[in-house]
Amino acid sequence: MEADGIDVVGPTDHTIFQSIYFFDPSGHRLELAADTATDDMAKKLDDVKWEMLNEWAETKRAPEHAKWMHEKEFSA
User: Fold this and answer.
1) How far apart are CA 40 and CA 71, in angstroms?
2) The whole model's pTM is what?
């Protein structure tokens, strides 16, 4: 994309997926994402998904259940 003159932001590491961001010819910002979660990561998130959703519904704040994704606990 960059070789064709398209400005790209990324890749951005979101722990469970990688993204690149760019604008289409109409000016809409787009994201392409690739799932990079391990089976352990997916299981850990699956185990707390309903607790996270319920906490968000009550507080409208980011739940702490998946804080590990931002602490690089599963980094290689």
Assistant:
1) 16
2) 0.65
